[in-house]
Amino acid sequence: MRDGTDKRVVVIGAGIVGASLAYHLASKGANVILVEAGGIACGVTGSSFAWINTSHNGPDPIAQLRGAAIEEYHRLETELPGLKIRWTGSLSYGASSGGVQQASGSQPSAIPVSRSRILTLEPNLKNPPQHALYAAQEGALDAVEATHALIAAAQAHGAKVLTQTRVLGFTTRNAKVTGVETATGVIDADIVVLAAGTGITKLTQMLNAPLPIEASPAMFIRYKTQPNLVNTIISSPEMEVRQSTEGTLLAAEDYLGGALENQPAAIAQRTAKAIQNELHGVISIEPELACVGLRPIAADGIPIIGYLPTVGGVYVCTMHPGVALAAIVGRLASEEIIDDKAFSALGPCRPGRFFAEKIF
Fold first, then answer.
1. Model pTM score
2. Residue 95's pLDDT band (cuts 50, 70, 90)
3. Which of the chain's termini has less CB crowding within 10 Å, N or C?
4. Contact predicate 75/111, CB 8 Å
């Protein structure tokens, strides 16, 4: 097996997916340069609810990836002491919890629990349901903190990081990308990895290989409030909330459009009232941050992971949920790039499905 030290890999995008790729590639001996147009975790990673959630309703082409996601994060915890994950479990009830599926090849991702068990888990609920689904193995992390931990680990393995460095184009030779053009010059590369989220659309257009990636908006809210209000991750029709170790309350909401009454500040106030209605002990709740994050979602809803079929040397890596899958995809993709492997779990994710003529 080759050790990867002869491969120069440029990773474009310093969110949690790009950071995971940079770490896994560098740890395998690749010569990695991570390029970011803004700052580290400045995109959707910085506005992510960051629930490591492996449940899914209905048929799931990426069940294998979801099924392996939690185990991979436990592996990363042993490798990176700076990676902090709260394995609190999740509690789901209402319309969204009616059809939680089993994780592929593992124990069920969630089990039914009664009202008494719900109150044991979440004693501050004012209106606990008669039944809910509890996934004890799920958790959450601070996505920005995790991204920095992964990048620091990548740098410890020799990776270089260039922030505030916009990609202007690519150099090619014989239908293969050989480098990345930036304002400060060309970075030579054997492989270029596109992990820039919604920015991948523009990058692939530069390569005349456009991919249909949609920017799907979602609301992220952070509140200053009392500690010990929420123990797990609660997902219900009224609220989707979790609490950090420091006591910050985090909430996720659907994006409802650009009308004045649906601006982030207004939604944050409405959500705060809903939380007060649902939880005992909320003496005060003040929004610290309310913003819209743009999640990269392929037109068919399936991650895009693999080599572009129409131009050589370009590996694409974009997915939703990015946080949940970052660890497993970072490892598998790095092995495909460095060791020339091909994983069946990534089969449904190949970019070639969007091209009429595929080049292998």
1. 0.93
2. low
3. C
4. no
